[in-house]
## 1
Amino acid sequence: MRITEECISCGTCVDSCPVDAIVESGEIYAIIDECTECQTCVDTCPVNAISD
Ligand code: SF4
Ligand code: SF4
């Protein structure tokens, strides 16, 4: 999974991740290698910035 440049850095997705794989990364957020591709975070993003 990855977070695109559409991210507005709202932080909403962070708490949805069961393995803490979403982190702040400069001006936007990023998904790190610990991601298990569970897809849980996808629907939490208000601007659909999380994609496969
Ligand atoms: S797909 Fe699942 S494991 Fe990966 S960042 Fe989203 S919530 Fe976390
Ligand atoms: S919910 Fe979407 S806009 Fe908000 S920090 Fe996560 S990826 Fe960025």
## 2
Amino acid sequence: MILERGRPVAITVVNQLSEPTAVHWHGIELESYYDGVVGWGRRGRKITPAIQPGHSFRVKFTPPRAGTFMYHTHLHDKVQLGAGLYGPIVVQEPGVTFDPATDHILLLSLGGEDALKDPLLMNGNSKPPALHWRAGKTHRIRLINISPANVLACSLLSASGALQWRPVAKDGADLPPNRAVLQDAKQVAFAGETYDFEVQPQAPGSWRLEVVAVNLPLKVVQPIEIQ
Ligand SMILES: [Cu+2]
């Protein structure tokens, strides 16, 4: 979902499940009534309802910050998250167009309810196909962890070993210049965190983003071919 900072948006959530649901707009500042916390969020006298099967709920907000966010179910979390009720949100500055050639969403999740049996997924895939990036350009990586309760260690590697990247944002907030400095391309991401990095591949080669869970037998590798 790509939104524009400062531009009001209305999103209709239609529940086609056989059980109630609610959707949380993770990291976005919005009125609590729309934020998917059933029985808690409110607007005047209205309390956030669960969205019943066959029903819908219209969410309205104006994203105040550009950055990387996510939406996800906030009801029956284990079952519905395991079934895929989540997705990325990118908020762009006005006038900026999302360019998938250099802007890359890498969303980590669990492909089921059981971290001991179900696979770790990258963009919905346990064996994600290679991405093809151009050398000589600045690429932005938007790392999102929505794997419930999983702490993930992520490293960007080339065939000859570790790479470096420049962190530019965390949870949708730009980093101050003294934090946005080139460093080893490693990051531990807790569930619900987003991290943005910039990388500048100089020459063709085979890269990969390796992600392993801390204390769980989970791993996923995203191949990246630099061309
Ligand atoms: Cu959340």
